[in-house]
Amino acid sequence: MTSNIVGVLLAAGRGERFGGHKLLAPWRDGTAIAVAAAQHLIDALPNSIAVLRPGDEILASLLAAEGLRIVVNPNADGGMGTSLARGVAAAEADGWVIALADMPAIRPATILAVAEALAAGAALATPVYHGQRGHPIGFARRFQADLAALEGDRGGRDILAQHSNELRLIEVDDPGVLVDIDHAADLTVEGC
Fold first, then answer.
1. Which residue, 76, 92, 104, 113, shows the most beta carbons closer than 10 Å to its own?
2. Does residue 191 lie in a domain region?
3. Rounded Cα gap, residues 159 and 6, in angstroms
4. For residue 171, is it within any domain?
């Protein structure tokens, strides 16, 4: 049962490498990248939130229409860690599945598998595709204080490194766990 596992969609980046607001760029079926990521997250975890930068009203409206609760990170320019901290602080839970809004190809079943690993007692969980670790990443409640204190662009990497022996790797047949849209050319990645 994953009822007290919360999905957190990090959507407060600037998209500078992409050359504009990449989260609104169209994905495979014309759906905005962030909306596709949100749909997959909320399909797996109906209790999900999205963390956005101030003033991103169009994206906030689109994600709210998908059923995500919107949380604004006034310190979004401080890096991904600040958004992750803001999202965790906004959602009391037994665990959080942290998803990135620029990863629209992750299947709901993969997200659910990460949440189920947390619900079954894993401290940390992440999918693995063909030997490569991907996203999303699950954090159990015991990391709440560490997550809420994050700053900068490293996100939860230091927590993962410090507790690597507790990381449950979940083998998946989902290449989407590795597909991160950073540049316009990434929109043509095949196989997902």
1. 104
2. no
3. 19
4. yes
Q: What is the DSSP secondary-structure string of 76-145?
A: GGG-HHHHHHHHHHT---SEEEEEETT-TT--HHHHHHHHHHHHTT-SEEEEEETTEE-S-EEEEGGGHH
Number of domains in the chain: 1
Range of the domain at 110: 5-13+21-180
Query: Is 67 contained in some domain?
Result: yes
User: What tokens appear for 156 in the block?
Assistant: 């939860």
- pLDDT per residue as tens, the chain (192 positions): 667 999 999 999 765 555 556 788 888 888 999 999 999 999 999 999 999 999 999 999 999 999 999 999 999 888 888 999 999 999 999 999 999 999 999 999 999 999 999 999 999 999 999 999 999 999 999 999 999 988 877 778 889 999 999 999 999 999 999 988 765 555 665 444
Task: Specify the CATH number for the domain of residue 93.
Answer: 3.90.550.10
The whole model's pTM is what?
A: 0.92
Report yes or no on 188 lying in a domain. no
Quote the tokens at residue 187. 């929109």
CB neighbour burial string for 54-73, b if at least 16 within 10 angstroms, e if fewer = eebeebbebbeebebebbbb
